[in-house]
Write a structure and sequence with these properties.
Helix content is about 20%, strand content about 30%. By secondary structure, it is of the alpha+beta class. The chain has a domain of about 325 residues: Transferase(Phosphotransferase), domain 1 (Orthogonal Bundle).
Length: about 750
């Protein structure tokens, strides 16, 4: 464990960057509190002078409708717990282009950091802490809400008492829509036995988790140790808790709370009474190092906020090489802008926002410097797309959605060529590489679903190649899923009913070939104007479909006969995170990254191999352990936890090689920490497991919290990083260019 002194000395505020917004809602942004893999948290102030912590969501995350639903539920749960035991919610907008949540700015460290600062807390402090937390949970339970992820990093220690934060997986009791029977969701070290077993987590489960938090506060360690998630889950379910270091007067009560039988645990009100604090103000029982840290944070709020960083003299998102100036992230570091040690916004989701903060984040002077990244070839500045925005190479033109229309640009230099008016939604166009096809704009005289070629001379619709009167062509959420040869795949709503189907139609005959029922867009998707998460891809042996289950995080993958659409096989996989736009496939397998990296045989859907069960992948909490994979030349590549790229033999699943961390050890990066820059020592960063890597003969390109990384396939080390907030990577078919889609521009880099 690192020395806590440097952590305590950090300034909690970091300057805004040149591209941070001036305002969100009615709040003026003052400074950054931290930024990570999920979004950015700002210090902000209303016109009336109220200071808030304002949390925002990265663009690539905001496009996920399930995440928006959870974001809204977090705000609801934060309102339920109230401002006595949580952070007061002042305003929120889950439907905004950039979803945001403004809460009380909670001044104080998280409990795990307080213990690092001062060591195990005195018994009187633990009792007072526990009584307040029990009352906080009781407040939730009276509204039929359970927290489900109480742990030390989700408790803020303030002078007035503890506050419960992070309601990212809180649920209403009996809510079947977002509760997954048979799956464990939460933090293994502080789960209840029933939660670890995938059973219903009732209020008694929160009591179990609270006891674990109090064991940690009193002793400095959790009741079931550390290590692999599988080992932790086993100990939670079957082993006796480790209460060493817990004061003798507290141990019997905490042991009762940690009973494997939920019926043996006290209620929250009973527990609050048994902990029986002596009535002294909470600040009076806090250790001096914690009080000093609270005072430091409090003073920083009213200091003059740091000046906004100017735009770099070079391209805004280009990292300057050694001797050529300082990158934006390097300026953060010089300005004291490290993420660790900030006072966090409460009220939801920060378990993934700023990530795990073990270690002080300082660069190791012995680590090698990264090379400067290559110069960008060109960039296209445009409006933020509504959804997706993957650039489509079409017969020498690059076509992409811009939010208000779809445009064609030159892949050579980004020169604007033309507009395809009326096709602003990315899901309404597709290509076979030669022709751009679209779903015809609704016509008052003819409401049939129709597929039309779009002219590359004037952007206008041509005569329909497919007309399907059985489907409602006026529905804006109809999708064109892809084109393969003479077949076009669609997801469409039936005319006169609410039935949705995946449809295969012939571009030659213009007729439907087959259909398969699929889930309709959810009410939330309809409200947001987003289509269903269903995809199709022609593969050897048929057509592969994959889509999210109607509830939970299951991903349903099925193979269908290309001629009749008959389902040959189907499997349901537990796969947290985003739905892949294009799964990794070859002639034998489809590859899926989730808890493990696995290959499913295209012939029967059976698992050919699985890699990573029980393997140490770094600190990954409530997210996919293995990222979306890419396959090339018989090798499967994916991000492994927080450790970087792993390469496996596509046929056997045997490990070919794993990325060597910058310091030469097996140390994993904490999710969401600040990234390194060219010309400076390499720091830990959080690899992005939601974006599949792009692979060439010489490099593997993947995203992390700091930007795009290039890993050399010979040395297995990262060689450069290009700082960008891109949410989408896409290689050009010629293998010479890589497209990075940011919220308002397309960046083009050369591929090595």
């Amino acid at each position: 464990m690192s020395d806590p002194a440097p952590r305590a000395a950090r300034a909690p505020l970091a300057p805004l960057t040149h591209d941070d917004p001036q305002h969100l809602g009615d709040f003026r942004l003052l400074a950054r509190l931290g930024s990570g893999g999920m979004g950015t948290v700002y210090l902000a102030r209303s016109a009336a002078g109220r200071t808030v912590a304002l949390k925002t969501v990265h663009a690539r995350i905001a496009a996920d409708t399930t995440f928006r639903t959870r974001f809204r539920l977090e705000a609801d749960a934060a309102r339920v717990i109230g401002d006595r035991y949580g952070a007061r919610v002042f305003a929120a907008d889950a439907l905004a282009a950039t979803p945001w949540l403004a809460t009380e700015y909670v001044i104080g460290p998280q409990l795990d950091e307080a213990v690092r600062l001062a060591g195990p807390l005195p018994e009187t402090c633990v009792r007072s802490l526990g009584a307040d937390l029990a009352l906080a949970l009781g407040q939730l339970h009276r509204s039929d809400v359970v927290h489900r992820d109480l742990r030390p990093s989700n408790v803020m220690v303030t002078a007035g008492g503890p506050k419960v934060i992070d309601f990212g997986i809180a649920r209403a009791l009996g809510d079947e829509r977002l509760t997954r029977t048979g799956a464990a969701a939460g933090t293994p070290a502080f789960m209840s036995p029933e939660q670890a077993g995938g059973l219903e987590h009732a209020p008694a489960g929160d009591v179990f988790a609270l006891a674990g938090v109090l064991v940690f506060a009193a002793s400095g360690h959790g009741p079931f140790g550390g290590g692999q998630a599988a080992d932790l889950l086993y100990r939670v379910r079957y082993a006796e808790p480790d209460l060493s270091g817990v004061p003798a007067a507290l141990a019997p009560l905490l042991a009762r709370c940690l009973s494997k039988d939920p019926a043996q645990r006290p209620t929250t009100s009973e527990l609050a009474g048994l902990l029986a604090p002596d009535g002294a103000p909470f600040a009076d029982v806090l250790p001096q190092p914690v009080l000093a840290d609270i005072a430091r944070r409090s003073a920083a709020v009213w200091q003059e906020p740091p000046q906004r960083l100017p735009a770099p003299a070079v391209e805004p998102d280009t990292v300057v090489g050694a001797g050529g100036g300082m990158s934006r992230r390097r300026l953060f570091a010089v300005s004291g802008a490290a993420v660790g040690g900030v006072a966090l916004a409460a009220g939801g989701g920060l378990w993934a926002w700023l990530g795990d903060r073990d270690g002080d984040g300082a660069a190791d002077a012995k680590q090698p410097a990264l090379q400067p990244p290559p110069d960008l070839l060109w960039q296209d500045q445009g409006a933020r797309p509504l959804v997706g925005g993957t650039p489509l190479p079409v017969n020498g033109m690059l076509v992409m959605a811009r939010g208000i229309t779809t445009v064609g640009i030159s892949p050579k230099d980004g020169t604007y060529l033309m507009d395809f008016h009326g096709f602003s939604d990315a899901w309404r166009v597709a290509t076979d590489g030669k022709v751009l096809y679209g779903i015809r704009k609704p016509d008052a005289a003819d409401k049939a679903l129709a597929v039309v070629p779009l002219s590359q001379e004037n952007g206008k619709e041509q005569a329909p190649l497919v007309q399907l009167p059985a489907y409602d062509g006026t529905n804006a959420l109809n999708q064109i899923l892809g084109v393969d040869g003479d077949t076009v795949f669609l997801c469409a709503k039936a005319a006169g009913s609410g039935q949705w189907s995946v449809v295969a139609a012939s571009l030659k005959s213009g007729k439907e070939q087959w259909r398969q029922p699929t889930a309709a867009p959810t009410a939330n998707q309809v409200e947001l104007g987003r289509p269903s998460l269903v995809r199709a891809k022609a593969v050897r042996g048929g057509v592969l479909l994959w889509q999210r289950a109607e509830t939970g995080d299951a991903l349903r993958v099925s193979l269908h006969d290309a001629g009749s659409g008959a389902e040959r096989w189907a499997v349901s996989l537990e796969a947290l995170g985003a739905t892949p736009d294009q799964p990794a496939t070859d002639d034998e397998h489809v590859y899926v990254g989730a808890q493990t990296l696995q290959a499913l045989r295209l012939t029967d859907g059976k698992q050919a191999w699985s890699f990573g069960e029980g393997r140490d992948v770094g600190k990954v909490i409530a997210q996919r352990r293995y990222g979306m994979p890419t396959v090339r030349d018989g090798v499967v590549y994916a991000v492994e936890g927080t450790r970087g790229i792993v390469a496996l033999d596509a046929r056997s699943g045997a490990e070919r090689w794993a990325e060597i961390p910058a310091d030469g050890t097996a140390k994993g990066a904490g999710d969401g920490t600040a990234g390194s820059t060219s010309g400076s020592a390499v720091q830990d960063t959080a690899p992005n497991r939601e974006i599949a890597p792009v692979v060439t003969a010489s490099h593997v390109y993947s995203m992390d919290a700091a930007g795009l990384r290039a890993v050399d396939v010979r040395t297995h080390r990262a060689v450069w990083r290009y700082e960008t907030s891109a949410y989408l990577l896409s290689p050009d078919p010629n293998g010479k260019q890589l497209y990075l889609r940011e919220k308002s521009k397309l960046i083009t880099l050369p591929l090595g």
